[in-house]
TrEMBL record:
<dbReference type="GO" id="GO:0005634">
    <property type="term" value="C:nucleus"/>
</dbReference>
<dbReference type="GO" id="GO:0034080">
    <property type="term" value="P:CENP-A containing chromatin assembly"/>
</dbReference>
<keyword id="KW-0175">Coiled coil</keyword>
<dbReference type="GO" id="GO:0000775">
    <property type="term" value="C:chromosome, centromeric region"/>
</dbReference>
<dbReference type="InterPro" id="IPR027801">
    <property type="entry name" value="CENP-P"/>
</dbReference>
<protein>
    <submittedName>
        <fullName>Centromere protein P</fullName>
    </submittedName>
</protein>
<feature type="coiled-coil region">
    <location>
        <begin position="6"/>
        <end position="33"/>
    </location>
</feature>
<dbReference type="Pfam" id="PF13096">
    <property type="entry name" value="CENP-P"/>
</dbReference>
Amino acid sequence: MDNSICQVYEDEIQSLEEEIKLLAEKYEDSQQESTFFSDEEILMSIKSFQREFQGQSKGHESPSDLKAQLESLETDLSFLMKFTGIQFTSHSKKTVEKTTNRTVRKHRLSGNCHSLSFQLEFQLLEMQNKESVSAVITDLSIIMESGEDSDVSKFVSSTEEHGNLLTFFRSLSSYAEWYEHRRRTFLHFK
């Protein structure tokens, strides 16, 4: 009787190991390919993950704690989108090169800032030392609907040269806000 119970447990362990292996391969494949997600798809995936996660968090945080954290993150994201006016509409990530201490990923972002749309494409070089990880942006390319504004074209060219995304997003937020005010003012006088 004991041998049959042990065999059942061993069979269950074997099937779980095979399932883990398949899931690990599926995860690795999903990390390698480029994917695009809309806001609705992301929210649907989060909710689907929450449903799957119910009851599986033994020894970890409770589902109610995770739900509270998720709601907090969604609130923070909503606040940041309202505060900056920047809303991302799609993102894709593809691993170009991966070694033990160096990873190169190609990112594509598109979105809107108030009424201006933008697209970014860049490579992120992550290098890992014994104590820390450093990341450098290379091959930055920015596409913006700036009309015939030469100042914006100069700014975009300068940003592409220096690869400074933080400066780009800060300046874009400010410029797009005033661009929208100016557009509304001119519409008012027409």
